[in-house]
Specification:
- The protein is of the alpha/beta class and 405 residues long.
- It has eight helices and 13 strands.
- The strands form three sheets. Strands 5-2-3-7-6-10-11-12-13 form a nine-stranded mixed sheet, sandwiched between helices. The chain has a two-stranded parallel ribbon with strand order 1-4.
- Strand 11 (274-280), helix 5 and strand 12 (297-302) form a beta-alpha-beta unit.
- Helix 2 (161-169) crosses helix 8.
- It starts with 14 loop residues before the first helix and ends in a 13-residue tail after the last helix.
């Protein structure tokens, strides 16, 4: 039998808990150090300059902003009844040769247009984003067709600067419309305006598929009216002022992302001067989903996207989106091009694809593995080729073959 002695032999051993605690403490310290280092790294990345993909056309790009009121419409999304519909519209256009630094990406109160109103600490700071347009630059010689551009639900038109600048560099006057009360933030008369439940319904309102379809159809109708109003106002700009003699008023094209894509199709369906519409990864909603389109249509989707009507559905929602898209294509009488971009997800069609993201935030974002700038360049190639075809009569060869019917 053993006996305890002065050295403590025979007492229970207690060194292993101390070793575990010591290891845990060291591990925790390492995590804290690494987390601090990562936060520091992310903070540096947050303010590092990030250039958007350069426009590929021959023109320099100018930019002006306008606040327009549609006096013929009462705003159904406003928090107060009887208010006329007001919209912020950014105009990107072909400019004469420019010098100096390009305009700020998100000037003034526009710096608050982050996802869901968050502060944006996990992404490139808007102040660090380098675009290519110059504020108020002199318009280039010539007459330029109009393209109206609409964002996805919750987003603002400036977040599609890459697409807008590229179209402008190819000789188009682009009107980017931010849907008031549907965007997380727009700016009217220098003041930020946020979303309302009517303009961006809460998830609880969208839980029922029929209710969701009705709400989205209502928004599509409002946004389509926004797009047609902007097209008419831009056409009128060709008579006086900066754009006098520079607007080709014969026909207009519409383009949009997500819900803005569905609204662009509906705007085209109801505008007799529409030359064609491009929908970038947007579900079909509104009357156009049932009646189709008699004008040319580009359906550009993310990888395995059911919204263009061709996919491997993984859910009932996927099957519904594929069925709706197929029905719309079948009901359409104009040529339809369907293309999916490998490696992309839903947000790859916006400037978010070109931003730097902190890893934890990036993992939550609907961004695919494709290099963001490359995905945007591919998108620009399709959208510009489509505009060239429907507005200038260029060959549709870059788009490939339309859907056989």
């Amino acid at each position: 039998m053993s006996h305890p002695d002065a050295a403590g032999r025979g007492r229970p051993r207690r060194s292993w808990p101390r070793r575990v605690v010591r290891r845990l403490a060291l591990s925790l310290a390492a995590v804290v150090v690494l987390a601090g280092a990562y936060v520091g790294y992310a903070s540096i990345r947050h303010v590092m300059p990030r250039e958007l993909p350069a426009p590929t056309g021959r023109y320099a790009v100018g930019r002006v902003m306008a606040d327009w009121t549609d006096t013929g419409r009462v705003d159904p999304l406003a928090p107060r009844p009887g208010v006329r519909r007001e919209l912020s519209v950014w105009l990107w256009y072909p400019a004469a040769r420019t010098r100096g630094r390009a305009a700020a990406y998100a000037p003034g109160a526009w710096a608050g247009m982050h996802i869901a109103g968050l502060p944006g600490l996990g992404e490139t700071s808007f102040a660090a984003v380098r675009a290519h347009a110059h504020d108020g630059a002199r318009v280039a010689a010539g007459r330029f067709p109009v393209v109206v551009l609409e964002p996805g639900l919750g987003q603002a038109a400036p977040l599609y600067t890459t697409i807008a600048e590229n179209l402008a560099s190819h000789g188009y006057l682009v009107a980017g419309v931010t849907p008031t009360y549907s965007a997380n933030l727009t700016v009217l008369h220098g003041r930020p305006v946020t979303r309302t439940p009517a303009g961006d319904p809460p998830d609880s309102e969208l839980a029922n598929p029929r209710r969701a379809a009705a709400l989205e159809g209502r928004l599509v109708s409002v946004w389509a009216a926004d797009a047609r109003f902007a097209a008419a106002r831009v056409t009128a700009l060709g008579r006086t002022g900066r754009f006098a003699g520079h607007v080709d008023t014969a026909r207009t094209a519409y383009a949009g992302h997500s819900l803005g894509g569905a609204a662009s199709l509906e705007a085209c369906r109801t505008d007799r001067r529409c030359a064609g519409a491009a929908d970038l990864d947007g579900d079909r909603s509104g009357p156009v989903a049932r009646r189709g389109l008699r004008h040319p249509m580009l359906l550009l989707g993310s990888e395995n996207s059911c919204v263009i009507g061709v996919c491997r559905p993984a859910s009932a929602q996927d099957r519904s989106a594929r069925s709706t898209a197929a029905a719309m294509v079948a009901a359409s009488t104009g040529p339809v091009w369907r293309r999916a971009i490998a490696g992309t997800q839903h947000f790859n069609f916006s400037d978010f694809a070109a931003f730097s993201w902190a890893a934890p935030v990036r993992a939550l974002m609907p961004l695919g593995p494709i290099d963001g700038a490359r995905g945007l360049r591919i998108t620009n190639g399709y959208v510009t080729a489509f505009a060239d075809h429907v507005l200038r009569g260029a060959t549709a060869a870059p788009l490939g073959s339309p859907v056989a019917r």
